[in-house]
Write a structure and sequence with these properties.
The complex is a heterodimer of chains A (310) and B (222). Chain A is an alpha/beta fold. Chain A is 40% helix and 15% strand. In chain A, strands 1-2-3-4-5-6-7-8 form an eight-stranded parallel barrel, surrounded by six helices. The model of chain A has no long low-confidence stretch (mean pLDDT 97). With 222 residues, chain B is an alpha/beta fold. In chain B, strands 3-2-4-5 form a four-stranded parallel beta sheet, with helices on both faces. In chain B, strands 1-6-7 form a three-stranded antiparallel beta sheet. Chain B has a two-stranded antiparallel ribbon with strand order 8-9. Chain B starts with a strand and ends in a 26-residue tail after the last helix. Chains A and B meet through α5 and α6 of A and α7 and α8 of B.
Chain lengths: 310, 222
Amino acid sequence: MNEYRSGSNLEKVLKAGHFAFTGECGPPPGANVELLKKKAQHLKGCVDAVNVTDNQTAVVRMASWAASLVLLQEGLEPNFQMVCRDRNRLAIQADILGVFTHGIRNMLCLSGDHQKFGNHPGSKNVFDIDSMQLINLVKTMRDDGKFLNGQDIDVSPNLFIGAASNPFGDPSEFRVYRLAKKISAGADFVQTQCIYNMKRFREFMKQAVDMGLHEKCYILAGVTPMKSVGMARYMAKQVPGMDVPDELINRLKGAGKGKVADEGIRFAVEQIEEFKEMEGIAGVHLMAIEWEHRVPEIAKMAGVLPRPKV
Amino acid sequence: MIVAEPKPIKEILEMTRDCGKILVVGCKGCVTVCNVGGSKEVGILASTLRIAAKRDGKELTVDEHTLERQCDPEYIDELKDKVAAYDAVVSLACGVGPQFLSERYPAQKIFPGVNTKFMGGALEHGMWAERCAGCGTCVVHHFGGLCPIARCSKSLLNGPCGGSSGGKCEISPDVECIWDMIVTKLMQEDRLDDLLQFRPAKDWTTARDGGPRRLIREELVK
């Protein structure tokens, strides 16, 4: 890689060999731009890029592209998320050209939670293409200058292409291969699902490293600090594809009243410390869900500040 | 087969509220096999309508007729001297039946008596599951003979999403994750290469997305 693929800050930080640190910001359930700006300000200077979720959990929110543009105006670099649930290939390609035109340089390609989980369960889903095909579509638009139908694009959207990986989903023996497939399809970087079972994740990474995947793609480990025992139990039982060991739940319980959140943060910081040393890990993706204001202290405790300027 | 279930009787009573003479028409095709629209079910619905009318003190005649198939003009024709005598016809066939009847007998009121669910088969007596989405271009051979278009909640073609858990789909523990089955089967058969092969975006023109479909086989057209 002699040249940048997109020239995004995230790409530059990773390419320079720094340990990347990305954050996340959910758009508001309305047009509350002030709230969005306030959340974004907490992340400013603490992260290299901010994931902007796309109708996450199939709940309607401000469009991810629109919230991404607000972040850009606020001086943060967005990682624009796009799911395949809500758009067909026409809308997908149009939105890709649109976001690139407005200065967005990172894009995370996802299938999307099924609408059954959300607040419009009666809606029709699209799934015209899947996340693998979306990754490949963005790569084809960028590197070959072609639309999905093979026609030429006049100016290509040069995006840094992201994908998600869930090391804890089933069937577990296939998970590392699915990651390999996403990399072959065109992913430049990967952000994993929230990790709580460190033992299983170490095994997953060993497989990934043995296959040389970390040399073809930047792998960022997903971290979500637990705010409460209830949240840990919910994640363990209600969220499909999530692995929360009892050991962690007991540790949080043992923290005592009023101290669970701090214990959750301590665990997250310990994880980040280990990820810094783990072979094949290029950074951490911190998903502090509705906890943006605590990101600065987590970043400070984890020793990832100040963020590099490349 | 095409699998259907009975419409709630309340809905049928509401549809036929103003009718004094009704013909209930069954079909000996798929709906007979899935116990929803054969002569037996025609009889049950007819009796139910008669009982309801009696309860409400209403004058009502209900006759019964079951056709060989309602998706074939040849058999639909069988009703030609009969239908005009009725205020309405209730079809117990899949969604094709009431439409063929409506097209053949435009002056007649035709009501659907079942809700058409999907193309599938019986898992056991009284239990059916979807197997085909009728996309028009079968690809099951790539997936160990199993169809992710019909059976994956997101119709994914390149592997399981992150919500696959313990063989179940993220939308419900009652829904099997077809990708779990595909992966398990192909890995057992040592066909990892097939799983790793990138499956490009599907051309949906042969599916319903290409507009209402029609099939002409020249060799069969007279």
